[in-house]
UniProtKB/TrEMBL annotation:
NCBIfam families with a match to the protein in the record: adk, PRK00279.1-2, PRK00279.1-3, PRK14527.1
Name the record gives this protein: Adenylate kinase
Binding site for AMP: T27, R32, D53, L54, V55, G81, F82, P83, R84, Q88, R156, R167
Assembly description: Monomer.
Length: 214
């Protein structure tokens, strides 16, 4: 699954993985597990993630190869957040060949830049319970106060508009070429990522080859 930050990849990947009875393999989860575990790869990744930059390919590839080799991924998986560029896509080819696996479809979630900025810059996280609200789509009853526990709602650094626009520029420079890469292979299906979650899910499921549905 490919698409810019804020397109809803994580949400859709979780739903689709459940619908298809396959594990969601998220690079975000892989990074957090390594960072939380204090592994060498995790420490390297954290420095880049804190700046809003992409983690170097050699670090990411090693983490993904290890995850895809685990037992629960042998019957299939849904990749969320990887590959992010053509170099990683070619590395994935090698990983999948070693595992006897292949890609069936690449879903591109399409959303306009300003919609992404609105979605992400409006998020507020509670300092106390980590509950997330949105100043437009899910405004707190009292400005700056968490509806869940009454804690302080703050804007995370990676949700600030400047950081978001930087992430989008990085995406366009490094990740968007994946669209052409997979289109040329006949694997790409583009779907609109606007509207309700259920609407986007329906479009995504319709794009999955029938034989791959759980």
């Amino acid at each position: 699954m490919v698409g810019p930050p804020g397109a809803g990849k994580g949400t859709q990947a979780q739903i689709l993985a459940s619908e298809l009875s396959i594990p969601q393999v998220s690079t975000g989860d892989i990074f957090r597990a390594n960072v939380g575990g204090g592994t060498e790869l995790g420490q390297q990744a954290k420095a880049y993630m804190d700046r809003g930059d992409l983690v170097p390919d050699e670090v990411t590839n090693a983490m993904v190869a290890d995850r895809l080799g685990q037992d629960d991924a042998r019957a299939g998986f849904l990749l969320d957040g990887f590959p992010r560029n053509v170099a990683q896509a070619r590395a994935l080819d090698g990983i999948l060949e070693d595992l006897g696996q292949r890609l069936d479809v690449v879903l591109e979630l399409v959303v306009e830049t300003e919609e992404v900025v609105t979605r992400l810059s409006g998020r507020r996280s509670c300092r106390s319970c980590n509950h997330v609200q949105h100043v437009i789509f899910d405004p707190p009853r009292t400005p700056g106060v968490c509806d869940n526990c009454g804690g302080e709602l703050v804007q995370r650094e990676d949700d600030q508009e400047e950081t978001i626009r930087h992430r989008l520029r990085v995406y366009e420079e490094q990740t968007a070429p994946l669209v052409d890469f997979y289109r040329e292979r006949g694997l790409l299906v583009s779907i609109q990522a606007t509207g309700s979650v259920a609407d986007v899910t329906a479009r995504a499921l319709a794009a999955v080859p029938t034989g791959e549905r759980g």
